[in-house]
Design a protein that fits this description.
Layout lengths: L1 H27 L3 E13 L13 H6 L4 E13 L4 E20 L6 E22 L2 H6 L3 E17 L5 E18 H4 L1 H11 L3 E13 L16 E9 L1
Antiparallel strand pairs: 1-2, 1-8, 2-3, 3-4, 4-5, 5-6, 6-7, 7-8
């Protein structure tokens, strides 16, 4: 019994020592667990009219041929190593569009603009993995870090008219984002160090990226095609801690 107790104590001591050694090796390797918040303004135009000849369909007639602007917020849990930062996160955005409603003539079937106002509200929600090559930025003083993000997308949408009737739904898909981050703390290390000590913020960076999303319920012919008609551009601020 006494020998069993001694073995148990030794096993616990070895487990504690191994845990401390592993933690020490993680710190020595420069690996850090953390998180980051991102806020972005983005452009957006869907491919919902792609089934119509020339790409001119109800969406273009109601909301025009230009791009809409939206806002987005993301959070990611991150693991920073020697060469860069990997993360797993989620985010949601908002894009709103308004225009005049349409009605279809009974005789010729031609679309006509009515005097009623209609609106389309989108709430793009994402689950994503990201990788940012910021190792050289933090160690060699190079302030530019490219990054990539792959995501699963779910666009929640609300369509409403002047009679207060509305229709809601969601369309699923996936997306790819490629971008560049400008690390502001590399430009002023003393200020960045002070900010870290006072608030816990490790890095701040400005971001510019382009995204391509395929959001059509994975090719379903019965769903709206809310995929990006072309590469969507966004710019924003990311804070890591």
């Amino acid at each position: 019994m006494l020998e069993t107790t001694k073995i148990g104590r030794r096993a616990r001591a070895l487990a504690i020592a191994a845990t401390l050694a592993l933690a020490g090796s993680v710190r020595a390797g420069g690996v850090e667990l953390g998180g980051e918040l991102s806020f972005r303004v983005q452009s957006y135009r869907p491919r919902v009219d792609s089934e119509f000849s020339g790409g001119t369909g109800p969406y273009t007639l109601v909301f025009g041929s230009g791009k809409a602007l939206g806002v987005r917020a993301d959070y990611a849990a991150t693991l920073s190593g020697l060469f860069g930062t990997a993360g797993l996160g989620a985010g949601i955005g908002y894009i709103g569009m308004e225009g005049k409603g349409l009605y279809q003539e009974a005789s010729g079937g031609e679309w006509k603009i009515s005097g009623d106002t209609t609106a389309l509200r989108l709430f793009p929600a994402s689950l994503f993995v990201l990788y940012r090559m910021d190792g050289l930025a933090t160690r060699a003083g190079i302030p530019v870090a490219p990054y990539a993000r792959v995501s699963l997308e779910r666009y929640l949408w609300i369509v409403s008219g002047t009679n207060h009737a509305s229709k809601t739904g969601a369309t699923n898909g996936y997306g790819l984002t490629l971008g560049v981050a400008l690390l502001l703390d590399v430009l002023d290390p003393d200020l960045a160090r002070q900010l870290n000590e006072e608030t816990g913020v490790r890095h701040t960076c400005l971001t510019v990226d382009v995204s391509k999303a395929r959001v059509n319920d994975f090719g379903s012919s019965r769903s709206w095609d809310l995929s990006t008609a072309e590469w969507a551009v966004s710019a924003g601020l990311t804070v890591t801690f």
